[in-house]
Amino acid sequence: MSGVFAGVGIVGLIVILVQALVVFVVGKLIIQLVMNTFRKMLEKSKLDPMLRGFAVSVVNFVLMFILIIAILRIFGIDTSSFVAMFGAATLAIGFALQGNLSNFASGVMLVSFKPFKVGDYVVTSGHEGAVVEIGMFMSTLKTPDNKQILIPNSSITGGSIVNYSAYSERRVDLKIGVGYDSDINQVKKVIQDVIDNNEKILLDKGTFVRMGEMADSSINFTVRVWAKTEHYWDVYFDLNEEIKEKLDSANIDIPYPHVTVDMKK
User: Fold this and answer.
1) For residue 152, what are the β-bridge partners?
2) Which H helix or E strand runs over 154?
3) Residues 107/136, Cβ–Cβ less than 8 Å
4) Do 229 and 167 form a contact (C-beta atoms < 8 A)?
5) In terms of Cα–Cα distance, which of 209, 190, 199, 189 is closest to 249?
6) pLDDT at position 143, please?
7) How far, in Å, are 169, 216, 262 from residue 259 at the CA level?
8) CB of 237 within 8 A of CB of 191?
9) Helix, strand, or coil here: 201?
10) Rounded to whole angstroms, how far apart are CA atoms 150 and 154?
11) Could you read off the pLDDT tens digit of each residue along the chain, which spans 265 residues?
């Protein structure tokens, strides 16, 4: 240190100390102002609290590092080595944590762009379930049979996401097969009556009942109705059960695949 201040003298040293003190105080005030503004911006963005705290820590560390470098330069200390060491350390850490950094960046994207939220039922990365948590590095799903699935965030953002809870209404599609001897209009009426009497079906969205296919052993009717997302499975199972019962009551045959074998002597 004596080499750095050689020839400066007492007065010069006092001037340098005062300059360093002023830079430190002013720098701290500027950092505090910047950090307060940054925190308010993050709060308005509704970013996840965990991510907000991490971002604040990183920005504060970088600003303090810049302030320390500025003060060291006032004392005439060569800071190029410090900057080079900081850059090398950052690069090494970046390579070591490349996967985690990718997951963290993906987590920020999930929280920012919100392709789904906690409670939504999604299919992603070959898995499906209700979203329990969107973490910093991985997200958690809970399957209908109560299993926990942890998926790295980068796997989610790097693939497709199907969100079954994104919209308030969903269409229920069914395929109903009846025998070739069945009367088409009678079948359509039976199915439509079942639909009209189901209170969970959104009739104002329109319904669709048409013969759509002549298969090997049956003629298949396409049935499409709309329901609230939370009622989707209720409508799906109710329609299947009620249509079967009404077709049986109307003596309309519901065939099953069969094979006829002719034996010749």
Assistant:
1) 138
2) helix 153-157
3) yes
4) yes
5) 190
6) 96
7) 42, 11, 10
8) no
9) strand
10) 12
11) 545 555 556 777 777 788 888 888 998 899 899 888 888 887 777 666 656 666 777 788 888 888 888 888 877 776 676 666 666 656 555 554 456 678 878 888 888 888 999 899 999 999 999 999 888 788 999 999 999 999 999 999 999 999 999 999 999 999 999 999 999 999 999 999 999 999 999 999 999 999 999 998 899 999 999 999 999 999 999 999 999 999 999 999 888 766 666 666 6
Task: Give the E-state strand segments of the chain in sequence order.
Answer: 121-124, 127-134, 138-142, 148-152, 161-163, 169-178, 208-214, 219-228
pLDDT of amino acid 46 = 63
CA 220 to chain centre: 37
Q: Which residues contact 17 (CB under 8 A, 6 or more apart)?
A: none
Amino acid found at 148: Q
Residue 207, token pair as written in the block: 């319904």
Residue 214: CB partners within 8 Å, gap ≥ 6? 220
- The total number of residues written for the chain in this structure: 265
Residue 35 token pair: 């950090």
DSSP H helical ranges for the chain: 9-44, 49-74, 80-96, 98-113, 153-157, 184-196, 232-249
Which residue from 152, 177, 159, 173 is spatially nearest to 100, judged by alpha carbons?
Answer: 152
Write out the two tokens for 44: 């308005």
Greatest Cα pair distance, the chain, in angstroms, is 125
Work out the angle at residue 47's Cα, subtended by the Cα atoms of residues 148 and 49, and round it to the nearest 5 degrees.
70
